[in-house]
Amino acid sequence: MTVREFYKALCAIVPRELGCSWDVDGLNVCPDPEREVKKVLVALDATAEVVDKAAAEGYDLIFTHHPMLFGGLKNVVADDYDGAKVIKLCRAGVSAVSFHTRIDAAEGGVNDILAGLVGLENVEIAGDERIMRVGNLPVPTSAAEFAAKVKDVLGCPAVLCADAGKVVSRVAVVGGSGKSELELALASGADTFLTGELKYSQYCDADKLNLLVAGHFYTEQPICARLCALIAEVDPRVQTDVVKSCRVTVV
Length: 251
Description:
Helices cover 34% and strands 24% of the residues. By secondary structure, it is an alpha/beta fold.
């Protein structure tokens, strides 16, 4: 199956229409649409290290959650970070595909996975963009106890917790950045909002619901297993490998 055919088959399962209108995901780099896809490297981000590995080890395609060129590309020069990645991929004939907000919103995507990992039941979709998920804990608990559970199941080094004194019973989740979703979480009837990033001022205003921030990477990294499953659904003969793209640690 060629890169062109492979990408078309992926889009048949998770169409671009599911994503936000402002998004730039999809086939981000494609030097050879007729190259056969036999080996795919999966990661959350197409970092320089991920690109180096794909080019050096004979991968045909990189499949990530975050778009490789999210901030746009004004020129392609070797001394520019994004430009250097594009040049390296093109020289190696490696393509780069990303599924971003489309797989945030999709059934079984980022936020369904996150809701399941933290133990939510009766999960519902919230908002016009269909990204947020809201569900109930089978047994209500304290914010501190829930934060400890989140830390354990996501494997993150720390969870920031702004405790509003609410019992954790109904939880809204948004993997990655939830900066723009705080009002929606409140409107959904949640007493707790779990996400990967918030603004400092939003922590300060945590009087209406508990806020838990587990890190952008850790709330979204579980999607890599789903990306591998999509590849297998399209062509089970394709070799997939997952690489960790985040270098952030707590010291």
